Structures are given as structure tokens and as C-alpha cells.
């Protein structure tokens, strides 16, 4: 993104009264600058999102009584485009919150998009619901379309985006690339399987408040709460291992397409230490983008 300002000087007749151009007339007047004032060729280096302003100065005459334009630009580095992946109970949700809080990225999760589209009764939502009601997976083309539309949103384009847990297959990744969406960084949270199993199997839900507890890491505050906690049907060791197996297969396929921009993070540390690793990578990425911008400007 760029913001520009320009100075447009109009000619002044040599017969003009000098007193009319005293210091009191130095205050410039501002008028919106429209495309009719300046033409750009397709090879122009100016960014398409420039905002232009024209300033008229009534005192200083241009050489040879000719009008001329001085144009200055200040560009802003492109926003971050990040993908993050992690197995169930890897802490991905927590890290997404920390990332969006600090960097202001638009958080996009395919599951949330599906639920929102279904609730809104959109055409995509109706199609997705038909498959889900039959216990079938929603086809890639429906989900990819939802993700593409959200990535194309004005806020995503302006602020940058954090794509959470998607793509989950090489076909989804290829489809996104064909639509022109390529991440700057692919973050992979790595946690040993035994820790993941322990985290999942120990989870409990309070049906009254909706709060999630863990019998070891975050136990309930009172015996009363402990007595009413429930376990999700798929939070058993057998089922979580099946989910982890599927996740690892999918991630391997996706990593092959993003191997050059993948950052592997030790997700078994505390959430603060995990975020410190991610924060370091994102800070370096921002500095690289700003550095490239400076090189182009020079």
C-alpha cells in the first residue's frame, strides 16, 4: 500500500504585483487529486492503492512559466499471510489467539466458516449441510470456495490473514495456489504423540458453563464441578490415536508443497515459550518484508 502527495505549481506572470505574493500567501490549499491530472502507463511503479493529493503553492513560480508536478510516495509493506497446522490438543487454538492479538491478522478457520455459512443459509452452506446430514465429508470444492471468499475479504487483504488448520490435503493446497493464495510462512506445531494422547484423554467438559478442564493440567475448582464433568465420546485413547494418524498423513502431503517456507515449532513447551518461537519467526518475516520494500524504494 502507498500514500502519495504531490506539489503542483502554476505559472505566475512577471507583471503580477509582488506584494500579492507576500509571506501571508504561503499557506497551501489542498484539493483532491484525480486521475485526470496525471496519467500512468501499465509499467508505472506506483501501487494501485495509492491515495493522491495535490497542493497548490501560489508563491514560487516554476521555471519558464511551465506547470510541473512533484510526486512523492511512501509505501507500506505487504501484510503477513500465515498458515498454521497442529494435531488435536497441540495448542493451536491458543497460539492463534496470541498471534491475532499481537499482529492483528484475520483469523480464518474452515470449520468456523462452514458453521457460519450453514447458519446464514447461503448456497454453500446448504450444500455443505446436505453432506453433513448424511454423515459425509464436505467436498473440497465447497470448502475451498468458502476459504477463497474469506481470504478475498477486504479485511483479510488489508490486515493479512492467519489460516487455521487448512489446507488439510495436497488437493486443497493446490486449489488455493491456483486461486493465487500463497502463504509467507507455514507454521507446524510439533508435539510428541504420547503428550497429545495425555492431553486429549484427560480433557473434561463442564456441561453447565461450557468450560474445558484437564484432570492433570487444569483440574476443576470444586468437587461439585468435578462431579458433573463429562468426556467427549471421541476423547478416548483409541479414537484420538486414529485422529492423530489421519492428521499426520494429511500434514505430510501438505508439507511437501510448503517445505521451503515451513517453520517447525516445539509445541510441547509452555504456551508462552511456544508463542516466543512463533513470534520470533513472524518478527523476522516482517523485517524481511520491510527490508525488501526499502531496497525497492532505494
Order of helices and strands: EEEEEHEHHHHEHEHEEHHEH
Cα shape: globular
Radius of gyration: 28 Å
Oligomer: single chain
Count of individual beta strands: 11
How many H/I helical runs? 10
The helix fraction, in percent, is 40-55%
* CATH fold description of the domain at 81-196 and 233-275: Rossmann fold
Describe this structure in words.
The chain is an alpha/beta fold and 298 residues long. It has a domain at 81-196 and 233-275: Rossmann fold. The protein contains 10 helices and 11 strands. A 5-stranded parallel β-sheet has the order 6-7-5-8-11, sandwiched between helices. Strands 2-3-1-4 form a 4-stranded mixed β-sheet, with no helix packed on it. The protein is globular and about 60 Å long. It is found in: Plastid, Chloroplast. It catalyses: AMP + ATP = 2 ADP. It comes from Nicotiana sylvestris (Wood tobacco). Residues 1-30 are annotated as: Disordered.
Structure characteristics:
Rossmann fold; alpha/beta; 5-stranded parallel β-sheet; 4-stranded mixed β-sheet; 42% helix
Amino acid at each position: 500500500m502507498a500514500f502519495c502527495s504531490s506539489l503542483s505549481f502554476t505559472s505566475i506572470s512577471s507583471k503580477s504585483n509582488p506584494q500579492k505574493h507576500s509571506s501571508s500567501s504561503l499557506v497551501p490549499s489542498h484539493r483532491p487529486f484525480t486521475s485526470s491530472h496525471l496519467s500512468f502507463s501499465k509499467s508505472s511503479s506506483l501501487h494501485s492503492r495509492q491515495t493522491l493529493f495535490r497542493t497548490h503553492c501560489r508563491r514560487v513560480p516554476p521555471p519558464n512559466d511551465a506547470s510541473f508536478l512533484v510526486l512523492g510516495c511512501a509505501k507500506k509493506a505487504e501484510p503477513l499471510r500465515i498458515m498454521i497446522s497442529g494435531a488435536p490438543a497441540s495448542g493451536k487454538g491458543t497460539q492463534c489467539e496470541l498471534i491475532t492479538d499481537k499482529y492483528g491478522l484475520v483469523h480464518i478457520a474452515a470449520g468456523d466458516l462452514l458453521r457460519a455459512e450453514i447458519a446464514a443459509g447461503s448456497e454453500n452452506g446448504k450444500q455443505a449441510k446436505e453432506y453433513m446430514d448424511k454423515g459425509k465429508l464436505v467436498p473440497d470444492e465447497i470448502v475451498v470456495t468458502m476459504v477463497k471468499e474469506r481470504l478475498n475479504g477486504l479485511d483479510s487483504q488489508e490486515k493479512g490473514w492467519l489460516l487455521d488448520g487448512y489446507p488439510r490435503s495436497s488437493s486443497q493446497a493446490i486449489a488455493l495456489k491456483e486461486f493465487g493464495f500463497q502463504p509467507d510462512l507455514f507454521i507446524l506445531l510439533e508435539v510428541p504423540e504420547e503428550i497429545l494422547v495425555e492431553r486429549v484423554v484427560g480433557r473434561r467438559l463442564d456441561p453447565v458453563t461450557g468450560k474445558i478442564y484437564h484432570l492433570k493440567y487444569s483440574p476443576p475448582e470444586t468437587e461439585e464441578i468435578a462431579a458433573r464433568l463429562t468426556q467427549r465420546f471421541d476423547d478416548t485413547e483409541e479414537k484420538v490415536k486414529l485422529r492423530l494418524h489421519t492428521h499426520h498423513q494429511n500434514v505430510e502431503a501438505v508439507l511437501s508443497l510448503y517445505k521451503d517456507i515451513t517453520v517447525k515449532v516445539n509445541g510441547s513447551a509452555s504456551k508462552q515459550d511456544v508463542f516466543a518461537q512463533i513470534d520470533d519467526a513472524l518478527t523476522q518475516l516482517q523485517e524481511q518484508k520491510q527490508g525488501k520494500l526499502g531496497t525497492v524504494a532505494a
